[in-house]
Design a protein that fits this description.
The complex is a heterodimer of chains A (463) and B (83). Chain A has 16 helices and 16 strands. Chain A is α+β, with helices and mostly antiparallel strands and 463 residues long. Chain A folds into two domains: 305 residues, no CATH class; 106 residues, Immunoglobulin-like (Sandwich), CATH 2.60.40. In chain A, the strands form five sheets. In chain A, strands 8, 9, 10, 12 and 14 form a five-stranded antiparallel beta sheet that branches. In chain A, strands 13-11-15-16 form a four-stranded antiparallel beta sheet, with no helix packed on it. Chain A is elongated. Chain B is an all-alpha fold and 83 residues long. Classes of the chains: A alpha+beta (463), B mainly alpha (83). At the A-B interface, helix 1, helix 9 and helix 10 of A face helix 1, helix 2 and helix 4 of B. The structure holds iron/sulfur cluster (2 copies). The site of one iron/sulfur cluster has 14 residues of chain A, from helix 14.
């Protein structure tokens, strides 16, 4: 990682084929939308870590204790299914939205875009607008440059460190963590991950920027497979714009044989990935719509209709009708709905109790006395609820079987596990030979609906 | 040109292996507790779960990096764009 950063910092000055991109600041409805997205998403990221819920952090991935808290719910490694379903849901929604609206994700919601935007704001505050930044790049080192560059980097580093701190705060309670930071008393692993994540943020949002999208992002490469002719894309209206060319404001360009594009290059300057949208759809385009806002501003000044660059579909560009409801949209949509509904339903039905039963491997069975045979099991109880419970174990499957646990009522604290020994006793003769199926059932005393059943085998003597 | 080459080489090896390592760690540690693993293999070595996760993650990353680098090498590097 460090090597990579070094390459890029050197890059900014020495590499000619792709110069450091200073996107021009634009104003317009899409820029406003994007700013809003940045504020909301970063607000959630930095804010959520501090939200408390029922006396503990609302969202906490407590890796040391191997449990995830998400508001009222607690997930255990046994709930891995939910995680898998969540990942499937995420992938499906990506397919769905890509087919529908193109790279909506890239332009508005991708962390890479969001943090880059935030870093750009800081760059603007300290180094000024595009022109000033370009000039600053060229100017020799003097006190102004030192001050501006310096304050930018101070801001960047502080912001990146705070980002890393918040990241770790989702895994270690953030309040304890902040005390640890304030007293310079942070654990080694926490320090490591804080710095690691901060460093990655700083490198990705400060230096790599569009190169992450162009060279590193897998989604950028395979999203074209999810597109079709009805997907929303950002496109330049070639028929309307060409032939491009400069002209005065009051010239009748149509009479001169010119199209609507005045070749002002503002769309190229606004583009964070440094491409020219007029060359057609390119995989570097992250669909941020900055060029739309830039060009619409120009069109307004020239008194031309807006939308020379606009959101459109390939079909619409060719004058054919665009359809929203197409087989792939419907299939993705239905799958999304079904899985979401399934997850929600199973979450409401989830029993906050789990149990594992392991037979004693050393002895198959024991003779307690002349009348009784006994099998011993180790039972692991996992109370996933947010309150403590007392449980009672019962057995089913063999006539007159009973189970003895010590103590009889098993008390397990909220979100804790306990391991007990259960002895199942059966009258001699009721179970001859090995492998009788039995069922052990654990029931909460305060709430009989909370119960868990496990099957096991009972071995008797051959007679 | 070497700067770009380097950046792309790192971009197409470090990054995919990082993603793969993240997924692998989640799946692996969801089903296996590093604590049990340690107890069964090196009971005298006292490290925390956090350390176990971290070591596991970097191990996955290392293996992924090796594989990505070999693929990169064998497929003759990148030659699709701008060259
Ligand atoms: S071409 Fe337009 S939409 Fe695409 S990345 Fe550049 S500015 Fe954004
Ligand atoms: S901003 Fe619009 S008018 Fe200016 S060069 Fe781009 S497409 Fe042409």
């Amino acid at each position: 990682m460090s090597k990579q950063e070094k390459e890029v910092t050197v890059d900014a000055g020495m590499y000619v084929a792709r110069e450091k991109i200073h996107p021009r600041e634009v104003k317009g409805p899409f820029q406003t939308l994007r700013n809003l997205a940045v504020i909301v998403l970063l607000g959630i990221y930095y804010g959520l870590a501090w939200v408390q819920w029922e006396g503990r952090q609302a969202v906490l991935f407590d890796l040391p204790a191997r449990q995830f808290h998400i508001f009222g719910l607690t997930f255990w490694p046994q709930d891995f299914l939910y995680l898998a379903l969540l990942l499937i849901l995420a992938a499906l929604s990506l397919f769905f939205f890509t087919a529908l609206a193109g790279r909506l994700w890239c332009g508005y919601a991708c962390p890479q875009t969001v943090w880059t935007e935030a870093f750009l704001w800081m760059e603007r505050w300290t180094e000024g607008n595009r022109q000033q930044r370009l000039k600053l790049d060229k100017s020799p080192w003097n006190s102004t440059k030192l001050l501006r560059r310096g304050s930018k980097h101070v801001l960047w580093v502080l912001f990146a460190l705070y980002t890393g701190f918040t990241f770790v705060g989702y895994f270690t309670p953030i309040r304890e963590l902040s005390v640890g930071v304030a007293t310079f008393n942070l654990g080694g692993w926490e320090t490591f991950w804080l710095l690691f994540y901060g460093f990655a943020t700083w490198g990705n949002a400060g230096f790599l920027r569009e190169q992450v999208c162009i060279y590193m992002c897998p989604y950028a490469r395979f999203q074209s497979a999810m597109f079709d002719r009805n997907s929303l894309i950002i496109s330049y209206d070639e028929k309307r714009g060409e032939p491009r060319g400069g002209r005065g404001r009051n010239v009748d360009h149509k009479a001169k044989g010119l199209g609507d594009c005045i070749d002002c290059n503002l769309c190229v300057q606004a583009c964070p990935t440094g491409i020219d949208i007029r060359d057609g759809l390119q995989y570097e385009c992250i669909a941020c719509a900055a060029c739309i806002d830039a060009c619409n501003g120009v069109m307004d000044k020239m008194d031309y209709p807006r939308g020379l660059i606009r959101y459109t579909t390939e079909n619409a560009m060719e004058g054919q009708p665009s359809r929203i409801l197409r087989p792939r949209i419907i299939i993705y949509g239905i799958l999304l709905l079904v899985i979401t509904a399934g997850v929600l339903y199973s979450l409401t039905q989830r029993t906050p109790l789990a149990m594992e039963v392991m037979a004693d491997r050393n002895v198959l069975y024991r003779d307690v006395d002349f009348e009784t045979i006994e099998n011993v099991y180790t039972v692991r109880i996992l109370n996933k609820d947010n309150q403590a419970h007392s449980y009672v174990l019962t057995v089913d499957g063999l006539p007159n079987a009973r189970v003895i646990t010590r103590p009889e009522r098993i008390h397990v604290g909220a979100g804790s596990t306990d391991t007990i020994i259960a002895r199942v006793q059966v009258p001699r003769g009721a179970a001859t030979g090995p492998g009788h199926p039995i069922e052990l059932q654990l029931t909460s005393q305060s709430d009989p609906d909370i119960q868990s059943t496990n099957s096991a085998r009972f071995h008797g003597p051959d007679e | 040109m070497t700067k770009v080459w380097c950046l792309r080489c790192l971009g197409s090896t470090l990054w995919p292996s990082f993603l793969a390592a993240a997924v692998a760690s989640v799946v692996f540690f969801a089903s296996i507790d590093p604590e049990t693993l340690r107890m069964q293999t090196l009971p005298d070595w006292s490290i925390s779960r956090m350390a176990g996760y971290t070591i596991g993650f970097f191990m996955f990353w290392g293996v992924g990096l090796l594989s990505s680098s070999l693929t990169y090498l064998l497929s003759g590097g990148i030659s699709d764009r701008n060259e």
